[in-house]
Fold each of these.
Amino acid sequence: MFGIGGPELLIICLVALVVIGPKKLPEMLRSLGKGVAEFKRVGNDVKSTLDDEVNKAEAESRKREVDEELARRKAEKAKDEAKDAKVEAETAKSEAETAKSQAETAQADLEKTKAESGKDEAKESA
């Protein structure tokens, strides 16, 4: 206790007894005890307040980290969906071009067939 041994504590008590007197010493010690108890209570209140504030700050930090992670995941998902939509649009465009090409080929074949039919009819009538 503060580097004070038994003999030093005994000397302090004897000096306090002589200076303060035997009648006032118990009252002074009670007051000192109440003061120390009040000091401890205030210290504990400050400690609990600081602990509460630290816990709040940690909770806010965790919440901010979670929100950032959720936002990152949403952005990643939106990016992936946009990429998928782009691939689907390119596929649809390619399919449309293929269908157009096939339709043009079919139209050309039809016209060719009609032209050949017209030639055959012309030969038969001649």
Note: The chain has a mean pLDDT of 89.
Amino acid sequence: MKELCKLKEMFRAIYAFEVLLKKDFGLSINEALAICSLDKNSRNSGEMAEELGISLSRMSRVLGALEKKVLIERAAGLDDKRKMVFTLSPAGRRKLADLRRRKPAFPPLG
């Protein structure tokens, strides 16, 4: 039971962190993690979903939100034109640099 109560504290901290991210950066946690995932190279949605530990359908919604915010760009894959790959846009690179510079603080666990 003690572990379950600790998990509750973790969820509260994650929620508080997401509220901060949305307020200060206009991003959900998954959007911020996706931006970080695209830092070094282009990725497809399956690779990103696996890395972030979320479903493909959730990843699709995250990528759609980032596209609406013009933080990522989509292109056909080199090997398979049916497979889309994503990269950071110039605005996405600036957003990632801002996240790194301002370093949002994760709330302490009770």
Note: The chain is about 60% helix and 10% strand.
Amino acid sequence: MSTTTRITVLTAAATLVAAPLTLAVVAPAHADVDRNGACGAGRYELSVDRERRAGQRGFEVDAGLEGVAPYSRWTFVLRHDGNRVLEVTRTADDEGDVDVDAFRRNSAGKDRFSVRATQVGGTTSCGASITVR
């Protein structure tokens, strides 16, 4: 086999292997939903992603703030189908970012997640909700 033929065969093989990997990286997850918006001087984000943990189907729920005052304190309340499942106070880092996350098992029918972040000792409060099937 000539050098040119070998290079052509290797290039074709590499393309066949790389194409599905590229599609796997580019293709979005089916039930991942994000909400974001303004929160005082910063921004909030609520993200709900389908996951499976220890054989249980559920959702990874992430909520966060960015661009808020560094070291400011925030109370997050996360609700799943109207029930409070997390209430925690966190301090923003030196860049003004603060995050919380939780795993929630799938419930029957639609799942509704909501989060509210309130600045401790301040007047700023923001939140969002996401409903997934």
Note: The two ends are 56 Å apart (CA to CA).
Amino acid sequence: MAEQKMMHATEATNLADILERVLDKGIVIAGDIKIQIADIDLLNIKIRLLIASVDKALEMGINWWQQDSYLSTKAKQADIEQENRELKKKLERNEELKKRLERAEVKAT
């Protein structure tokens, strides 16, 4: 009869040690896939995998999640504020054009 090997807590400790080392040192895998035809983006895939503690990631200068509007409320707020500024400028231009048209109509009559 074959002997069965018993798993001990030392094997779990080894896994915990490996995880601790990975979080302490950090592992980053990043990749971008972009398919373009005549400067028109057909497909754009950004892959970011970070396995590290947040402190270690910041120490390494990796903080992309802070500027990503899907992951950070501050970044999303900044995007919304930028969009609002652009929309206000467009609205002001449209109102000015409307006034010019109204003046032109008054002069034509």
Note: The chain has four helices and two strands.
